[in-house]
Amino acid sequence: xxxxxxxxxxxxxxxxxxxxxxxxxxxxxxxxxxxxxxxxxxxxxxxxxxxxxxxxxxxxxxxxxxxxxxxxxxxxxxxxxxxxxxxxxxxxxxxxxxxxxxxxxxxxxxxxxxxxxxxxxxxxxxxxxxxxxxxxxxxxxxxxxxxxxxxxxxxxxxxxxxxxxxxxxxxxxxxxxxxxxxxxxxxxxxxx
Length: 192
What we know:
The chain is of the alpha+beta class and 192 residues long. The chain is built from two helices and eight strands; from the N terminus they run H-H-E-E-E-E-E-E-E-E. It has helices at residues 2-17, 25-37, and strands spanning 50-52, 60-66, 76-83, 91-94, 107-111, 117-122, 133-141, 151-160. The protein has a four-stranded antiparallel β-sheet with strand order 1-3-6-5, with no helix packed on it. The protein has a four-stranded mixed β-sheet with strand order 2-8-7-4, with no helix packed on it. A hairpin with a 5-residue loop joins strand 5 and strand 6. The N and C termini lie far apart (94 Å).
């Protein structure tokens, strides 16, 4: 029986690695399931990790930020959260290959020691005159998905313009009262 079990374990290994030639995928899966149900091989599937989205997030996570000194470098602009159904440790990242020139180096992803969160930290000042929107792709892996494989989530940064060009207007009274039959010339308001 020990020799039969060893042969079956080798067959399980080959089925798992899909190295059998001239056999279609359906046959490999069926034989693997039969062997697993008979106790000859163990089947261990990896469930991929998942991002935890906040209520109201759609397909994309959208973050609105004000340009310039209103949102300085070092600001945590978003906290990414995730979990792995198998309980494996997860790692957040950023898919650098998807970044345009304006978004390159814009943020850093810092994984927390607990492993279930990561801070998305702004590295540069934002400038709405240069770029009003940045498309980033966050990544999440449990290190069991295979080399270079990860789950992705889109993060869109919308940059709100701040009046930082001359002239800068100070707030003023929104309405002006002019009495009937006022003397002319009459100064109605001063704009600064």
